[in-house]
Amino acid sequence: MKTLFIHADPVLFDGQASFDAFLVENGFIVATGTELSLKPHDMTQDPAVTIVDLEGHAVSPGLVDCHLHLIGYAAMKEKNVSLKGVTSLEAMQQKVTDFIHLKKVVPGTWINGSGWNHDAFPVRKMPTRHDLDAISDQHPMKLLRMCYHICVVNTEALRLAGITKDTPDPEGGRIDRDVDGHPTGILRETAMNLVDRVIPPIKEKEEIKELILAGCQDLVAMGFTGVHTDDFGMVGDRQALLEAYLELDTANLLPLNVVLQMITYEPSDFQFYLDNGLKTGKCFNRLMAGPIKILGDGSLGSRTAALKSPYSDDPTTSGFMLMSEENLDQMIRQAFEHGFDTAVHAIGDLTMEKVLAAYERYQPLIQQHHLMPSIIHSQIASPALLEQYQRLQVVANFQPVFLHSDWQIAEERVGTQRLKTSYCWKTYLQMGIPCVGSSDAPVEGFNPFENLYTAIARKDLSGHPKNGWIPEEALSREEALKLFTLYPPLLTRETTIKGQLAPGNRADFAVLSAHPYQVEEESIKEIKAVATYKDGIKIYG
């Protein structure tokens, strides 16, 4: 079967020759050119050719988000209370109250939510258990900060979890306490696990399938044809999650390519993936096994990202890593020995230093297995770290849309000097460091055009600051688009068949409401996907 797409306005890279039509056969683009040159002179000679008129719309290569949490996003949308955008403690309390009444949540049932950001409150103070107790003392509650590295729980949740004045801080975490030593309800990093173990987890396979499909439908509606997702830590049964994905894939129900980022919290977690025969690059249908994912540190907003020097706005802390250096080294080494890529969450410069040191130490294994290690976030760097990224060709997987929330707090957190090599995406690209883009949804939204806007304008989604934040690090429109189209195939070793609109590439593309190279800068974030095609078949629109 052949399909001829005509009247296209393609998004092109690196001086590609212009065209307005392209021919697709068996899921691949086989030719580009003009309608006249590609259309059979006599349609009766080739009646199998279907013609699709794109009506002059812009056409982008299929978009790929290289790191998010699909189950977490879908659960927040379908099951939990969203606190995104609340601008005061009172608004946060009201939203939870409304959720309880709207959903008719019976007493004793857990209330889970996420998205609050105390830095957006008039009084920049974190909520406590007492603030949640004022909503309800009959519903145990866990409400995640927008970064997902810190939460607040109420007194009932603390009771059910058995967290008291005498409970010690776990390794890689902290229980905030008042002047008398009693828990305030704020739990940081691994301390959240103390509550998680008493919250009924998502573990039924059919429910997991519903969440996967709900998330996938939202992705393709925004022009995505691929996603890399970290889900194994979001469910109570990893086997059920894996089987859910495999069964959906076997039944041809996944509308886009899904790469599984396989999280390990400690060295023993690795065995699960070996036992299931998974290895980086193992491809099923549209499902692929990706890298071993490791959580190195926390977030900037919660001051749990591990810095080499104290936080500029709180000299009592430098943040902390979520595991010992020995465990981190063992997890990276065992992944490399078995031929797995790694993707380590590292925001602070201390964590990046430790991760890059391990990557350098195990270069023989990386080269032996032709691996492509990456660092997710790559936020607070230094000249020396950037040079090491460049020398080792480590992939920086960053989220331009983080600027939306971080630009107002970053300088006060890390100071002027460290800021010079923070969120410096242009510098990464200019140095020849391989880069890919992602959203970390549901931490931020995965709307790709909002992500592009923040990368290009260096402004938040309200258009601030007026002249852009550190505007010298702004990306060109082509550079920003490549982060979500041309570059992601690096991670899956598919650079010869994905990432651009060219013969030999898979026919994965999005039809857009406006051309991202041509609209006013402030309108980039308003672009929509009119239709999405995977292997030349419409999956949305």
- List low-pLDDT spans: none
Distance between the termini: 21 Å
Give a count of the beta strands, DSSP E runs of length 2 or more: 23
What would you report as the Rg, rounded to the nearest angstrom? Answer: 24 Å
Number of helices: 19
Overall residue-averaged pLDDT value: 96
Major beta sheet summary: 8 strands, parallel
Q: Biggest sheet, strands in spatial order?
A: 7-14-15-16-17-18-19-20
SSE class: alpha/beta
Q: What share of the residues lie within helices?
A: 25-40%
* Net shape: globular
How large is the share of residues in beta strands? 15-25%
Give a description of the structure.
With 541 residues, this protein is an alpha/beta fold. The protein is 30% helix and 21% strand. It has 19 helices and 23 strands. It has an eight-stranded parallel beta sheet. Helix 7 (205-220) crosses helix 8 (238-250) and helix 11 (349-361) packs parallel to helix 13 (383-392). It is globular, with a radius of gyration of 24 Å. GO terms for molecular function: hydrolase activity. Pfam families: Amidohydro_3. Its EC number is 3.5.-.-.
Q: What's the quick description here?
A:
The protein is of the alpha/beta class and 541 residues long.
List the helices and strands and how they pair.
Layout: E1 2-6, E2 9-10, E3 21-25, E4 28-33, H1 35-38, E5 49-53, E6 58-61, E7 63-68, H2 70-78, E8 81-82, H3 89-103, E9 111-116, H4 129-133, E10 141-145, E11 150-153, H5 155-161, E12 173-177, E13 183-189, H6 193-196, H7 205-220, E14 224-230, H8 238-250, E15 257-264, H9 270-275, E16 287-295, H10 325-337, E17 342-346, H11 349-361, H12 363-368, E18 374-377, H13 383-392, E19 395-398, H14 403-406, H15 410-419, H16 425-430, E20 435-437, H17 448-457, H18 477-483, H19 489-492, E21 509-512, E22 529-534, E23 537-540
Parallel strand pairs: 1-5, 2-6, 7-14, 8-9, 9-10, 14-15, 15-16, 16-17, 17-18, 18-19, 19-20
Antiparallel strand pairs: 1-3, 3-4, 6-21, 10-11, 11-13, 12-13, 21-22, 22-23
Helix pairs in contact: 2-7, 7-8, 10-11, 11-13
